[in-house]
């Protein structure tokens, strides 16, 4: 049977030899053509279609911007739509292309990267006498030791091979003993290198994190960069993953670059000595090697994809995926009630798909580059190494003239060291040649590995440029945001601006309003416009003046700017005009959905104070218990005690959370309380008790509410009409309640022209929506 098969194979071999040869050539040809296309076409594309590519990247940015705006505002707004132009408008597109090009330079190994990197280095290594310098010093020492060890091991291997070839067992065992003895310091040095690299990475990370946290929490920058500025797509991703990657890459690159440099230097010296010992020319080898390395480096640089840009985009897409996950976690209950898992799943899937598509593209781009890199570094360099190593063997040696006296002495077995040193005899036995070859090969390997690591570091540096750009940009934006400098592409709608027009410097709005702190606890708003972060002017000019004890009721239809006024009073939104005078640190805001902090029940009440602040204020737990009684939450204290740590956002009901927020108000007792429908889920009797208690405590109320039962606690009223106009007056509660009753009566009557007219009139006076009028008519 085997003979049958072999005969068949023989036959088929004869029959198919020609076809096989053709097939092999076709496969090799196809592989080469694909290779050339994959490497060459992107190059060609880079030179020929550069602008288009940038516009494509702009489109990607636009998609991102749209996503971003949807996420932030709940409705789709973007710079092109809001100006009335369309995505297809070439003028707008090219203008934006230009602006985008100026703003977002592509991360690469360039001047911008060096400047950004130096900025980060100054943060990571703040002075010459810091822990990081000590760690880097230790790391450097171990790297140098490692290099010397490599050279020693290369020589040792050469000697071992020589004694094997010579069949000299005694010396072989001696060298082997040395080999094992070296292993102990070698493993220690290697482990220390790895340990120090990780320690340096952690130290760098800590410095960057501390710096970023300082900036993030300075002047409410965490709020400003999300609401008022559009430059940071996902701050959480930059604060966590990007910082970590920068720190670990820098630490890794330090070893990756310094050690190869030592390796190259020491290996070159050792190789030169070795070649010299064989009386060969020491220049030919380095010249050939340098030529090949330089050409390879140039070729690789030419065909290198934009790794910096690719990793920056990857980080951005990862950040978006994380963001979508985060939204589901924080809105789990609402989503579950709505049964909205299908929509959420589709959002998650599409975010994941965007990431995987990008990764696939990145892997494909890397594949061809890595292939070329391997080809050059593994095969071309090895071949060159073999040529260089073989030169001293094949080329005629520079045999120096041997002194006749020495020859005579050598033949008689005597040595005279006084004779001239340039009179040498080279032992060209097989064992010596083997030793030379093994040592030289090892040294060359050390050198070529070092060059390979240096060159592949270029890829790491370009990738580092991507992360560096993200972290450095974050620092810049946080610094600017804390100083009130924002960048958000906005186009004011002229028809809405009324008397007030936002002034622009380039494409950025200028906050020209003046802000003062009052010494007598007054609030004075003088001709201040209410302008959203998108530069929509909601109210062109507002003027009100409040003193402690002036309890203000704020009413008006949805979206008329009631909460926005609170944002301006609290300093969250810029003042674009007029003058604003507020007391410093005397206002306490309570929203409709209060924030529950991580911690125990006590932490919920005293937030944003810490326990130490509470002790300093001489407030005891007995006082907290009284506060909890005032807001009817004493049962929670009985149930959970003040010290139990729980997820209070999930545990407390909506009404309980609102009462907890009022407990917070009673704990802090500010001069002014900004209450934004903060008791809408609390029963009317408890709500009234709480309002009365607040007034009794001397807190002045600024209340946004739709509940008439709260009117009686207020003395002034600010009524917005939703068209940009407002009325500020003393509140006549009886009048207002009468109007409210009349309105309720009218609504139960049959429709008529008179009814509609009167309803419109009453709604105007009450500052309420005209919806009922529309429905009843
Ligand atoms: N961060 C933001 N960026 C852009 N526009 C915003 C932002 N926050 C609010 N707005 C817009 O400002 C306008 C006024 O909002 P505001 O929250 O002040 O309304 P409101 O009077 O409190 O309404 P409601 O009674 O519904 O709470 C709305 O049109 C809203 O879309």
Automatic annotation (TrEMBL):
PROSITE patterns (UniProt xref): ABC_TM1F, ABC_TRANSPORTER_1, ABC_TRANSPORTER_2
Protein location: Peroxisome membrane
Residue intervals of the ABC transporter domain: 523-759
Keyword Kinase on entry: no
Membrane-protein topology: Multi-pass membrane protein
Family membership: Belongs to the ABC transporter superfamily. ABCD family. Peroxisomal fatty acyl CoA transporter (TC 3.A.1.203) subfamily.
PANTHER family: ATP-BINDING CASSETTE SUB-FAMILY D MEMBER 1 (PTHR11384:SF67), ATP-BINDING CASSETTE, SUB-FAMILY D MEMBER (PTHR11384)
Record's protein name: ATP-binding cassette sub-family D member 2
Source organism (scientific name): Hypothenemus hampei
């Amino acid at each position: 049977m085997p003979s049958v098969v072999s005969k068949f194979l023989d036959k088929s071999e004869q029959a198919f030899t020609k076809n096989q040869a053709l097939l092999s050539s076709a496969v090799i040809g196809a592989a080469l053509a694909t290779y050339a296309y994959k490497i060459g076409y992107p190059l060609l594309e880079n030179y020929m279609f550069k602008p288009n590519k940038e516009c494509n990247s702009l489109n990607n940015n636009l998609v991102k911007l749209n996503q971003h705006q949807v996420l932030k505002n709940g409705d789709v707004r973007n710079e092109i739509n809001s100006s009335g132009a369309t995505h297809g408008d070439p003028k707008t597109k090219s203008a934006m292309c230009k602006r985008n090009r100026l703003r977002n330079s592509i991360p690469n190994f360039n001047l911008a990267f060096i400047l950004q990197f130096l900025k980060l280095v100054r943060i990571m290594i703040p002075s010459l006498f810091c822990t990081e310098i000590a760690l880097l010093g230790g790391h450097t020492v171990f790297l140098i030791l490692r290099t010397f060890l490599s050279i020693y091991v290369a020589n040792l291997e050469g000697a071992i091979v020589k004694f094997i070839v010579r069949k000299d067992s005694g010396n072989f065992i001696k060298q082997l003993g040395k080999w094992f003895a070296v292993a102990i310091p070698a493993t220690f040095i290697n482990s220390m290198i790895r340990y120090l690299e990780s320690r340096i990475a952690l130290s760098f990370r800590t410095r960057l994190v501390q710096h970023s946290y300082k900036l993030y929490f300075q002047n409410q920058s965490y709020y400003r960069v999300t609401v008022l500025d559009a430059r940071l797509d996902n701050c959480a991703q930059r604060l966590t993953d990007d910082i970590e990657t920068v720190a670990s890459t820098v630490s890794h690159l330090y070893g990756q670059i310094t050690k190869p440099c030592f390796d190259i230097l020491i290996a070159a010296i050792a190789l030169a000595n070795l070649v010299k010992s064989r009386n060969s020319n020491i220049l030919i080898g380095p010249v050939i090697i340098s030529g090949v390395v330089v050409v390879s480096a140039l070729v690789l640089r030419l065909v290198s994809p934009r790794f910096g840009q690719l990793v920056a985009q990857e980080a951005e897409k990862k950040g978006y995926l994380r963001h979508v996950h985060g939204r589901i976690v924080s809105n789990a209950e609402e989503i579950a009630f709505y049964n909205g898992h299908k929509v959420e799943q589709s959002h998650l899937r599409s975010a994941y798909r965007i990431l995987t598509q990008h990764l696939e593209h990145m892997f494909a781009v890397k594949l061809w580059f890595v292939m070329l890199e391997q080809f050059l570094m593994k095969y071309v360099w090895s071949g060159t190494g073999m040529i260089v190593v073989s030169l001293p063997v094949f080329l005629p040696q520079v045999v120096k003239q041997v002194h006749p006296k020495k020859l005579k002495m050598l033949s008689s077995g005597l040595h005279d060291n006084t004779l001239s040193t340039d009179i040498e005899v080279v032992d060209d036995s097989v064992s010596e040649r083997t030793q030379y070859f093994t040592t030289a090969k090892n040294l060359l390997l050390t050198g070529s590995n070092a060059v390979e690591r240096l060159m592949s570091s270029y890829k790491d540096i370009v990738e580092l440029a991507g992360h560096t750009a993200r972290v450095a940009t974050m620092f810049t934006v946080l610094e600017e945001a804390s100083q009130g400098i924002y960048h958000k592409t906005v186009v004011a709608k002229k028809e809405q601006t009324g008397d007030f027009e936002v002034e622009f410097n380039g494409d950025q709005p200028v906050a020209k309003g003046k802000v003062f702190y009052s010494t007598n606890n007054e609030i004075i708003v003088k001709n201040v416009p209410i302008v959203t972060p998108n530069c929509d002017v909601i109210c062109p000019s507002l003027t009100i003046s409040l003193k402690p004890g002036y309890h203000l009721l704020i009413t008006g239809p949805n979206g008329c700017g009631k909460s926005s006024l609170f944002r301006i009073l609290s300093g969250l939104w810029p003042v674009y005009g007029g003058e604003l005078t507020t007391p410093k640190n005397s206002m306490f805001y309570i929203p409709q959905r209060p924030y529950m902090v991580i911690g125990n029940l006590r932490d919920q009440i005293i937030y944003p104070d810490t326990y130490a602040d509470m002790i300093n204020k001489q407030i005891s737990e007995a006082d907290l218990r009284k506060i909890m009684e005032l807001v009817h939450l004493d049962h929670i204290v009985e149930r959970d005690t003040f010290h139990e740590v729980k997820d209070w956002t999930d545990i407390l009901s909506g009404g309980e959370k609102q009462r907890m927020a009022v407990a917070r108000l009673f704990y802090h007792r500010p001069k002014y309380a900004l209450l934004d429908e903060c008791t809408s889920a609390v029963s009317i009797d408890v709500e009234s008790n709480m309002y009365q208690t607040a007034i009794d405590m001397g807190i002045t109320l600024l209340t946004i509410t739709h509940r008439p039962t709260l009117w009686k606690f207020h003395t002034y009223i600010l009524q917005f009409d939703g068209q940009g106009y407002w009325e500020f007056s003393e509140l006549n509660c009886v009048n207002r309640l009468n109007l409210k009753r009349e309105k309720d009566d009218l609504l139960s009557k049959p429709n008529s022209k008179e009814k509609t007219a009167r309803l419109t009139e009453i709604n105007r006076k009450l500052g309420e929506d005209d919806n009922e009028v529309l429905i009843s008519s």
